[in-house]
Amino acid sequence: MKDIYELVPKEEVPSEVVDDLDNFFSVCIDLCVVYYGNNNNSLSEALPKFIKNEKKPRYVSVDFQAGANAHYVTSTHRDNNGEAFEQIDEKSAMNISEEKLKSGEYFDYRFLKTAAELVLLEEEAKGNLRVREFTSTLMTRLDVFLYNAECKFMKETNCRYENEDDYLAKVFGISEESNETQLICIDSSEVGTDVLELMTSVVSRILFDYRKKQKGEKRRKHPVHLILDEAHRYIRKDTEYIMRENIFEKIAREGRKYSLFLMISSQRPSELSQTVLSQCGNYIVHRIQNEIDLNYIYSVLPYFSSDYVNKIKQAVPGEALIFGNCVPMPLMVKIEQASPDPNSKNCEIDKEWFKISLHDKNN
């Protein structure tokens, strides 16, 4: 940041612009120091060494060399008034650097926009004047997360978690010591599509990482099943999908090795990711009459013959075609009526309108 600031031709720029830029960098540096990752308060403890009465951070001088040869200079420096201030020593600086690079730790979301702006500013200083054009979509998505009211619940700080394992233990009841929780239902019916994509992907990625860390026999104990209703809302085949690197595709390909299994339910199979659909081992197909959906299933599943297509078209409510590893051959089955009945009956429109007509006549 100091190098970028020095590139500004201060003699050719109005003084108020230079002052604004100086204030901007001061705020950016302050945010970087305070919010740069989960580092066990190492940065917070180091912060007083950078700050004098005017609350402006001091810098660690670095001799910029190749890669790991970067060397932290440690000495006592004097400010413009000749007053000495203490600079962080090499050991503390390296400890902080190591802390913030640990895997499984994440940056505070408030740091994201600042970090992105700094990177863009540096690229522009290097002459890459179209960098903002190339990253406009990314920045728009970031702004949606930061300023969209629907994302507010994801940024609340009432509950603090030390790491992923602590989050899974407190929210889902999943831990190595206890696995008492058998079934967890997450109601996302009131959540917008964009927020739903982000929320389900993050939770699924945390679960995948947790299962992947298990070693030996632990990997085969306490399996986790993800059951996704209306799966076409967040397991899309669209190439412009916001979550292009879809975690659900990774779970479909690799989850079995880590005892993480996926069950998806959808009324629009043609909108599902081909990777996820083709990786499924078993299928239960209810009545489908939409040709697009039927053709999509036919194209993705090579052993899905035209005979099965006709059976699915002619199926009545409650009937389904089952095929896959769970049965020796495809079976057409009649599924028992649920007890108690779910509240899923259709409205009898003609009767309801007739009731309204009679009511109007009587009045």
TrEMBL record:
GO molecular function, one term: ATP binding
Tagged with keyword Protein biosynthesis: no
Secretion signal span: none
Keyword Zinc recorded: no
Keyword terms, alphabetized: ATP-binding, Nucleotide-binding
Annotated protein name in UniProt: ATP-binding protein
